[in-house]
C-alpha cells in the first residue's frame, strides 16, 4: 500500500511489518543544516521508500531520493545546479551498536523511542550525497566578476572609518 502523504514521524517496524510504502515532496527550506551549506533554499526533495522485513528479520526500506539543489561553486562562490539522485537502502536500528552489525549495503538509521523523524533522516541523506567540492563548468564560471563585487564591498567596509568612532576618539582626548 502506497501512502502519498508523508508522515512527520514513523515507526519503521510498523511500516516494515505491513510492507507499507510512502512517497512525496519535502521543501528544502525546512532543512536548516542543509540550507546553511547550499547556495539557495529553494526547491524540493522527493522521496520514495518501500518498507519490508528482510530474511534476517531486519526492518529495512529501499527507495530513492531526488532533489535539485544549488551548491556553492568553490571557484567563484556562485550557485551551481546539482541534480541529486540517491538510491536508498536503509536499515533501522535501535542504537549505534546495532548499526555496526548491519551489512554494508544498508545505511543505518537509528530510531528514537521506536520512531524516526522523517525530515531529519532525509536531511542527513541529502547532506551525505552532496558533492564534497563543486565547480561550474569553465564556461559558466565567472570568478573575476564575483571577486570584483566582493572586493568593492570590502573596501567600503574597511577603508571608510566610521565617523562616530572618530568623534568618540576626539571626545576622549
Ligand atoms: Zn563558478
Automatic annotation (TrEMBL):
GO cellular component, one term: cytosol
InterPro entries found in the cross-reference section: YceD, YceD_bac
UniProt KW Lipoprotein keyword: no
GO biological process: ribosome biogenesis
Keyword Hydrolase assigned: no
UniProt keyword list: Ribosome biogenesis
UniProt record similarity statement: Belongs to the DUF177 domain family.
Protein role: Plays a role in synthesis, processing and/or stability of 23S rRNA.
Name by which UniProt lists this protein: Large ribosomal RNA subunit accumulation protein YceD
Organism of origin: Marinomonas posidonica (strain CECT 7376 / NCIMB 14433 / IVIA-Po-181)
Amino acid at each position: 500500500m502506497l501512502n502519498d502523504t508523508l508522515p512527520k514521524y514513523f515507526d519503521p517496524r510498523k511500516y516494515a511489518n505491513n510492507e507499507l510504502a510512502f512517497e512525496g515532496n519535502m521543501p528544502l527550506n525546512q532543512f536548516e543544516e542543509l540550507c546553511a551549506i547550499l547556495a539557495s533554499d529553494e526547491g524540493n526533495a522527493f522521496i520514495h521508500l518501500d518498507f519490508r522485513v528482510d530474511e534476517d528479520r531486519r526492518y529495512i526500506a529501499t527507495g530513492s531520493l531526488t532533489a535539485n539543489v544549488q551548491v556553492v561553486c568553490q571557484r567563484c562562490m556562485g550557485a551551481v545546479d546539482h541534480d541529486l539522485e540517491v538510491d536508498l537502502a536503509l536499515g533501522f536500528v535501535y542504537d549505534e551498536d546495532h548499526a555496526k552489525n548491519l551489512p554494508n549495503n544498508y545505511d543505518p538509521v537509528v530510531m528514537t523511542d521506536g520512531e524516526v523523524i522523517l525530515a531529519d533522516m532525509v536531511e542527513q541523506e541529502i547532506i551525505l550525497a552532496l558533492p564534497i567540492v563543486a565547480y561550474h563548468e569553465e564556461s559558466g564560471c565567472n570568478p573575476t566578476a564575483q571577486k570584483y563585487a566582493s572586493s568593492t564591498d570590502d573596501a567600503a567596509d574597511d577603508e571608510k572609518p566610521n565617523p562616530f568612532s572618530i568623534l568618540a576618539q576626539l571626545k576622549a582626548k
